[in-house]
Amino acid sequence: MEINRGFVGLGGLFGAAGIAAYAAAAHSTSGHMATIAPILLIHAPAFLSLSLLGKLSRASYLGGLILILGLLFFIGDLVSRDLNGDRLFAFAAPLGGSLLILGWIVVAATVFKALDFKSPR
């Protein structure tokens, strides 16, 4: 079975970034890194799973793409607050969180027959 190498790579990067965020949280007074770390570590193995599922289902591939955007906005906003003292842009974190919820709903929707497993090619 083929895998989506992009999702595997992102899973590895999200895992590494999660560990780095935990390390930063241990040396920081800000609470954002402690919030970021588990979110990244939760999504790391999810992307490893999506690397297989994304090749079988268009809906799960789309859900993975939405999750990527959600993580970039949500995590990006929190990192920006720690490093720059300011938001990424107004409502970046709520937008990212909403995209994360939507992405997981799209992945869950692959269970329905209408979104049956078909090659996303």
From TrEMBL:
InterPro entries hit by this protein: DUF423 (IPR006696)
Transmembrane segments: 35-53, 60-76, 88-112
Keywords: Membrane, Transmembrane, Transmembrane helix
Protein's name in the database: Uncharacterized membrane protein YgdD (TMEM256/DUF423 family)
Domain of life per record: Bacteria
